[in-house]
Amino acid sequence: MPVTDVKHDLDALTLTITADFAAPVERIWQVYADPRQLEKIWGPASYPATVVDHDLTPGGRVTYYMTGPEGDKHAGYWLVGEVDEPRSFAFQDGFADLDFNPVPDLPLSANVYTFTAHDGGTRATYVSTYASAEALQQVLDMGVVEGATSSLNQIDDLIAA
């Protein structure tokens, strides 16, 4: 199980997840850079993702939806900011309707994903920052920790294939 630490800080408005992978930084980068690989890990196994648009460049946009066990669909988007391939990227992550329009009453997060060499593999640090403690609490109540942990724990199987 790659996830080694999960911390949320309502004062700093952050959720930080740390995970270690037995693969080089460049391989972990590819999980996010390739939309077909991203589909295999973005969301828990019971809510597989379909990536519709994928532009992991500064100013780019990624759109996706996850399909639940009952066929229900939940969409989201990334607005990509800084990209330092293969070390890090930053993006805004938001909830969307099925036409990929932002849903304004659900929290938007600012995210920085960082990949560094560590113990012969990669340490990934995922930091999400929210606009308010209420927004962070809302996603915590929605199960973001369980969902993100489940998603990240799928990376081992993907990189082993």
Automatic annotation (TrEMBL):
Alphabetical list of Pfam families matching this protein: AHSA1
Stored Gene3D superfamilies: 3.30.530.20
Chain ranges passing through the membrane: none
Classification via InterPro entries: ASHA1/2-like_C, START-like_dom_sf
Domain Activator of Hsp90 ATPase homologue 1/2-like C-terminal: 22-159
Family under the similarity heading: Belongs to the AHA1 family.
Protein name as catalogued: Uncharacterized protein YndB with AHSA1/START domain
Native organism: Catenuloplanes indicus
Lineage: Bacteria, Bacillati, Actinomycetota, Actinomycetes, Micromonosporales
